Amino acid sequence: MELTVRDAAGLLNVSEKSIYRWIREGKLPAYRVHEQYRFSRAELLEWATARKVSVSVDIFDEPQADGQKPASLVEALKAGGIHYRVSGTDKASALRAVVELIPLPQEVDRQFLLQVLLARESLGSTGVGDGVAIPHVRNPIVMHIPRPLVTLGFLEQPVEFGAMDGKPVHTLFTIVSPTIRGHLNILSRLAYVLREPPFADAIARQRSREEILVQAAAVEAGIPGLSPTRERPTQ
């Protein structure tokens, strides 16, 4: 989805003047279309997450074309799984290990998914700082799965990921989605919850699966349109 300067300012909770300044300084990813600036929603979310810029809850207001309620991060984490002591000595081997853990249908080519994730990394690291990376594909519609998945993997040892803050990565949130809309929804929610101290602390301390789900559900309860009772994790 192409966003205008006004849209970008609203989603990042800043003035349009700030948006233009960031563009001039080369800090904000933007495209010039017919003498006007346009923005990718996914790129804005990645940019905001890496720089710890707050995003507006309005980012969750995009209507669903099929009328289906968007998946929550808790649902996606339950579907994708939370794993500890994931192997890997570098970016490629860590991603390979995570891809093997994602609960994908048998017909999905895992090697193809790995290559797509590595190609995405070649465009720019998905490391968003503080030891966290969010590997995902730019065109998620190629994955034939019923609902979005987020596989959370805690690495056995931190690896260099080319993150903007220069810190090695110890935590991977790998997103796989059947649609671009679902991908953006999950990326929006993940960007939102990672800014909340209770959830961020649970991730940094590699807490139990149950505690991570509880913290994610607590944060998501404040997102418009999401029923907190529906997302209560099972113990």
Characterise the protein shown here:
The protein has two domains: about 1-55, Orthogonal Bundle (Multidrug-efflux Transporter Regulator, Chain: A, Domain 2), CATH 1.10.1660.10; about 75-220, 3-Layer(aba) Sandwich (Mannitol-specific EII, Chain A), CATH 3.40.930.10. A hairpin with a 2-residue loop joins strand 2 (about 30-35) and strand 3 (about 35-40). The protein has helices spanning about 5-10, 15-25, 40-50, 75-80, 90-100, 110-125, 180-195, 195-205, 210-220, and strands at about 1-5, 30-35, 35-40, 80-85, 125-130, 130-135, 150-160, 170-175. Mean pLDDT is about 85; it is low at about 225-235. The chain starts with a strand and ends in a 15-residue tail after the last helix. The strands form two sheets. Strands 4-7-8-6-5 form a five-stranded mixed sheet. Helix 3 runs parallel beside helix 7 (about 180-195), helix 5 packs antiparallel against helix 6 (about 110-125) and helix 8 (about 195-205) packs antiparallel against helix 9 (about 210-220). By secondary structure, the chain is of the alpha/beta class. It is about 40% helix and about 15% strand. The protein contains nine helices and eight strands.
In the CATH hierarchy, what is the superfamily of the largest domain?
Mannitol-specific EII, Chain A
Helix content: 40-55%
CATH topology of the largest domain: Mannitol-specific EII, Chain A
CATH second-level architecture of the largest domain:
3-Layer(aba) Sandwich
* Largest sheet strand order: 4-7-8-6-5
The count of DSSP E runs of length 2 or more, i.e. the number of strands, is 8
Low-pLDDT residue spans: 226-235
